[in-house]
Design goal:
Structural class: alpha/beta
Number of strands: 16
CATH superfamily of the largest domain: Phosphoenolpyruvate-binding domains
CATH topology of the largest domain: TIM Barrel
Shape: globular
Distance between the termini: 23 Å
Largest sheet: 8 strands, parallel, barrel
Strand content: 5-15%
Number of helices: 23
CATH architecture of the largest domain: Alpha-Beta Barrel
Oligomer: single chain
């Protein structure tokens, strides 16, 4: 059976099917509203105490970063808006607390699941986790105690952070679920625990039974139920090879990434939260190629202050000890709505009022962020990058605003890096085609392939009906990438890539051959990318690039790469 591998590794073991407790919530009317509110308050208090306990447990067993999900859970569980909506339903409709919680939960989940953003969509799992804990306390039910299981592969419908916090990782081999996603908190926690995890395996809870034998390949997203002795032998060998490969990867830590023919390449990490920097450092990244700052602006009811931003950027830069930290300015709009900005509802939000367009319109917001970044630049190797650029006028305006902010800081006697490097995200076809002109005005490019593919191919990457058209192997996309790199180099600037294509194992050799100077990606892919590059020759890849760019279809490109280049361990 096929799913999506979100945490790597290969395991063979016995199955335990975790059936989620069915929370049958029935609606009934109450005569004593105050009594019902007291019931709700008691359940909330018990829920908050449980979350505190889980937080401490996770902090001890897994780590600080992973435990912080439960700080967020606690904030959600005591959020005044969330609680007041539940209480409001009880008071207005004289209904039981369980039904009020269920209705508010369902409304929140429906809104989050409709958002065209994987990260935010998967936050619906957190709302479900908190609400279901609250419901269990109202109904007097208890969940299955995962800490008492013995050496098994857990198969379940979905996995919550609370489930993971309760398990004994020494007694669990891995996980397979019907639902879930790559950016869920559960996936992040299991990667840290280095437990293989495959999501999206259809009807697995119906097919598997307790005690069945199962093979789970978290690398390829493959699950084999009740395998033959021959399959067990094949995957036992694969498991040994994978474990040996991980040892090889760890030996790359502390070494420069150099191709077989001696070309040095930078491999950096993409981060969303400040604490992600710890993982980039652990996996030996050469710095941060993309710091998505929009999360500082989300999950709150007002703009972050200059001081808040400054402290966040400063601490992150200091941790890198001189390695580069490339901070992307606010990339709001599109699928990232900020309620307090009252952004307009648009027919085509990805083509509308977003990213740099908002910043140039709301210069108060833009200047506050630039002040914070410039102040932090005195404490580390910070560079600034601007998203969604489509013309030279935007770049010239940005540079003028930066000079204004620098002058203000000089007058105030605040120190900053006067020669801070600035770059642009090349993610629109307009920027790609005019990259020769844009390169004269900036210090570097970073190619944002996620949007570049979307805009070049006119494909909404969140629309399942047309998702088959979205491909990083499309010849038009690859020709634009080559054009951007060539134009950057002609003007003497370096070119990086921070989209998903930068970690694509098949494309990495082609991008190296094109002359890409920096690859930026999620921390879990850093060491594998270092290994791939160290095992190929850039000069050899250059000759293959010419052949790839002559091909007509994404399928032809993919097949050609697979035939010509081997990057498997």
């Amino acid at each position: 059976m096929e799913g999506i591998g979100v945490s790597p590794g290969i395991i063979i073991g016995k199955v335990f099917v975790k059936k989620n407790i069915e929370l049958k919530v029935e609606k009934y009317y109450i005569s004593q509203v105050i009594t019902e509110l007291d019931r709700l308050n008691s359940a909330i208090e018990k829920t908050l105490n449980e979350i505190d306990h889980i937080y401490i447990n996770t902090l001890k067993k897994i780590g600080k970063k992973e435990s912080e999900v439960f700080i967020a859970h606690k904030m959600m569980a005591e959020d005044p808006e969330f609680i007041s909506m539940i209480k409001g339903k009880i008071e207005r409709e004289s209904i039981n607390a369980e039904w009020a919680v269920k209705e508010v939960r369902d409304d929140f989940v429906q809104i989050l699941k409709s958002i065209d953003n994987d990260y935010l969509r998967e936050r619906s799992a957190d709302i479900l986790d908190i609400s279901n804990r609250l419901l269990m306390n109202l109904l007097g039910k208890k969940n299955i105690e995962l800490s008492k299981l013995e050496k098994c592969i857990i198969v379940t419908d979905d996995l919550t952070p609370s489930d993971i916090a309760h398990l004994d990782s020494k007694n669990v081999l891995g996980f397979v679920t019907e639902n879930g996603g790559k950016t869920s908190h559960s996936s992040i926690m299991l990667k840290t625990l280095e437990l293989p995890y495959v999501v999206g395996v259809k009807d697995i809870t119906l097919s598997a039974k307790n005690g069945d034998t199962m093979i789970v390949d978290g690398n390829e997203g493959i699950v084999i139920l009740n395998p033959t002795s021959e399959q067990i032998e094949i995957y036992s060998k694969k498991k040994r090879q994978f474990e040996q490969f991980i040892l090889k990867l760890n030996k790359l830590k502390g070494k420069e990434t150099t191709s077989k023919d001696g070309v040095k390449i930078k491999i950096t990490g993409n981060i969303t939260f400040p604490n992600d920097i710890d993982k980039v450092i652990e996996y030996d990244g050469d710095g941060v190629g993309l710091y998505r700052t929009e999360l500082l602006y989300m999950d709150r009811d007002k703009l972050p202050t200059e001081e808040e931003q400054f402290q966040t950027y400063k601490v992150t830069a200091e941790k890198l000890q001189g390695k580069p930290l490339i901070i992307r300015t606010l990339d709001a709009g599109g699928d990232k709505d900020l309620s307090y900005l009252d952004l307009p509802k648009e027919m085509n939000p990805f083509l509308g009022y977003r990213a740099i367009r908002i910043c140039l319109d709301r210069r108060d917001i833009f200047k506050t962020q630039l002040r914070a970044i410039l102040r932090a630049s005195a404490f580390g190797n910070i560079k600034i990058i601007f998203p969604m650029i489509s013309n030279i006028e935007e770049v010239l305006t940005i540079k003028a605003i930066i000079e204004e902010v620098k002058e203000q800081l000089k007058v105030e006697g605040i120190t900053f890096n006067k020669d801070i490097e600035i770059g642009i995200m090349v993610e629109t076809p307009a920027a790609a085609i005019q990259s020769d002109i844009l390169a004269r005005e900036v210090d570097f490019f970073s190619i944002g392939t996620n949007d570049l593919i979307q805009y070049t191919l006119a494909v909404d990457r969140g629309n399942q009906k047309v998702s088959y058209l979205y491909s990083q192997y499309h010849p038009a996309v690859l020709r634009l990438v080559k054009l951007i790199i060539d134009n950057g180099h002609k003007e003497g600037i370096w070119v990086g890539m921070c989209g998903e294509a930068a970690r694509d194992e098949k494309l990495i050799p082609i991008l190296l051959g094109m002359g890409l100077d920096e690859f930026s990606m999620s921390f879990s892919s850093i060491l594998k990318t270092k290994w791939i590059i160290s095992n190929i020759s850039k000069s050899k890849m250059e000759s293959i690039v010419g052949e790839v760019l002559k091909l007509s279809t994404p399928l032809e490109v993919k097949k050609y790469i697979e035939e010509k280049i081997t990057t498997n361990y």
